[in-house]
Amino acid sequence: MSAVVSDVGTRTAVEATGLVKVYGKGDTAVHALAGVTVAFEAGRFTAIMGPSGSGKSTLMHCLAGLDDVDGGQVRVGGTEITGLGDKDLTKLRRDRVGFVFQSFNLLPTLTAEQNILLGLELAGRKPDREWFDTIVEVLGLRDRLKHKPTELSGGQQQRVACARALVARPDVVFADEPTGNLDSRSGAEVLDFLRMSVRKLGQTVIMVTHDPVAASYADRVVLLADGHLAGDITAPTADSVLAALKNLGA
Ligand SMILES: Nc1ncnc2c1ncn2[C@@H]1O[C@H](COP(=O)(O)OP(=O)(O)OP(=O)(O)O)[C@@H](O)[C@H]1O
Description:
Layout: H1 3-6, E1 12-23, E2 30-41, E3 45-49, H2 56-63, E4 71-76, E5 79-80, H3 86-96, E6 97-101, H4 112-122, H5 129-138, H6 154-166, E7 172-176, H7 184-199, E8 205-208, H8 212-215, E9 220-225, E10 228-234, H9 238-247
Parallel strand pairs: 3-8, 3-9, 6-7, 7-8
Antiparallel strand pairs: 1-2, 1-4, 4-5, 9-10
Bound molecules: adenosine-5'-triphosphate (ATP).
Adenosine-5'-triphosphate (ATP) binds next to strand 2 and helix 2.
């Protein structure tokens, strides 16, 4: 059992144990994850960083049940997801996991409001109107709800994507380079919101990023190198993250 799990008062939202992911076979096999054990606490904002090719995206995909694993276990909200069938995995992703992608991934024919509520609708769930209103208010989307994605700025589209990720009150939100397509001001707004969703709304966020400034919004940075855990920084600053990355040769 990891130290995090045994901490009094700390709940683990997502946990990987001995995670192995291999691409290819024989001489050309790449050990993208070579036995990663890491726990992500609930109610915390964690960034995953590391040099290019270190396994960040692979780790996130395996944690989110988007990719199968070759060894080890993943637990999301207490449920072991490694070994779940496609149907159960789809349900788990739909009901208990939120996603924010670099490219927003909104449906162009739907309004902002319809995009935010689509997942719940597909799941046959009724939105919690109070929670919906809270998210919309905090994200400053009230007067944009009837607009289609093409009528919104990049920053507004990503805020709609954040609302969509949070509306079902998931166990965890995975954000994959959420500021990668945004200018620094819009990026800062999205990061402010992700941090606030953790501090004030009690959500759990795990974000992959290349950007030390983006990582400094997190409570903790987990570093990967060559498919291994290579560091763990609490209360990161852009400088401390940059220094740690330099040590890894990034
Ligand atoms: N589908 C795939 N087939 C073969 N190899 C892959 C595949 N996906 C990833 N890899 C390899 O696995 C390793 C880890 O890749 P991954 O994309 O997880 O790294 P990353 O840290 O997210 O990189 P980046 O920062 O460049 O996005 C790399 O060596 C990569 O080339």
